[in-house]
Specification:
mainly beta; Nuclear Transport Factor 2, Chain: A; 6-stranded mixed β-sheet
Length: 108
């Protein structure tokens, strides 16, 4: 679904560029279930289109409580020379706030 030079902007991390880096990044995604994508808006002109939507999933990391997550995403699609459409840019981020770190004790 991605172009060979695609870029992904995952939350809480650096951008990932290119096929091999995307495959490597996908291998770091924690175990999960109930993954859903809901397209909210799709539009485009010529050989370029975008999709804006919402996602949800439940992270199921062994030995940890299940962690439901939901958020939004934007994909930029480009029509290829063979007529197929592929994602060239993909950004997503969570609506779930990061956990609050414990307070730092004062220095003595």
């Amino acid at each position: 679904m991605y172009t060979s030079d695609a870029q992904l902007g995952p939350p809480n991390g650096p951008a990932v560029s290119g096929h091999d880096a995307l495959v490597a990044w996908a291998g770091t995604v924690p175990p999960n279930r109930d993954f859903t994508l809901r397209q909210i808006d799709v539009d485009g002109r010529g050989d370029l289109a975008y999709v804006y939507g919402k996602y949800s999933w439940v992270l199921t990391i062994p030995g940890q409580p299940q962690a439901p997550d939901s958020g939004k995403y934007i994909e930029l699609w480009r029509k290829q020379a063979d007529g197929n459409w592929k994602i060239t840019r993909d950004v997503f981020n969570s609506d779930v706030p990061l956990p609050t770190p414990p307070p730092v004790p004062p220095k003595k």
